[in-house]
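User: My instructor asked us to take a sequence, write out its structure as tokens, and then describe one feature of it. I'm not sure where to start. Here is the sequence I was given:
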Amino acid sequence: QVQLAESGGGLVQAGGSLRLSCAASERTFSSYRQAWFRQAPGKEREFVADIRGSGAFTYYADSVKGRFTISRDNAKKTVYLQMNSLKPEDTAVYYCAADVRGGIGIRESEYAYWGQGTQVTVSS
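Assistant: Let's start with the prediction itself. The structure tokens for your sequence are:
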């Protein structure tokens, strides 16, 4: 069972930056594809970004492309989401997800393990 714990959320003004972290318990962390999803109030959870186990390949939702960067440190078993130029519409609970399957995963069903989420609020 993989356990994921997000941190780094908070309140920031529009145009500001935040970096989210997701620490994993799995010792074979580098074998897992990792992703960030988010869920805004009254909306469904949506894909934000994912990264392969090696860190060599990443994929982003169009809404965050050019502003957000996903990365990972396999030695620390941690994945990051650097969020720049934040907008009020980025306000949501951000979730970290992991799965051992390969390829790109943009659907919730493609991830077996989830964190509890961290709140990000962007004020205008």
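For the description part of your assignment, you could build on this observation: The chain has a mean pLDDT of 95. Try explaining in your own words what that tells you about the chain.
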